[in-house]
Design goal:
With about 80 residues, the protein is of the alpha+beta class. It is about 25% helix and about 40% strand. The chain is built from 2 helices and 6 strands; from the N terminus they run ββαβββαβ. The strands form 2 sheets. The protein has a 4-stranded antiparallel beta sheet, covered by helices on one side. It starts with a strand and ends in a 5-residue tail after the last strand.
Length: about 80
């Protein structure tokens, strides 16, 4: 089964980054960041996966982002019917 989801993350309090800077840091993670202008305090990442357990895929994606960007917190999620990226 193929699944798609978006996760929204908040950067640590007082921290801002641009989407290109975040994308560079997250280059090892299979995701697409939603475009935004200027510095952001929150960002949305779009993922896709395949398997029998979409929840496990979502958890793995969350952990991958949190492993790269210390102090980020997931603040939203959305399962999608079709890919965004």
């Amino acid at each position: 089964m193929r699944f798609y989801f978006s996760l929204t993350f908040a950067l640590p309090e007082g921290e801002e980054q641009t989407i290109p800077a975040l994308q560079a840091q997250l280059a090892s993670v299979a995701l697409t960041l939603e475009p935004a202008r200027g510095a952001v305090r929150e960002f949305t990442a779009h993922f896709s996966g395949e398997g029998d357990n979409a929840t496990l895929g979502l958890e793995e994606a969350r952990q991958a982002v949190e492993a790269v960007l210390e102090g980020v917190q997931m603040v939203g999620m959305d399962f999608l019917d079709t890919p965004i990226h």
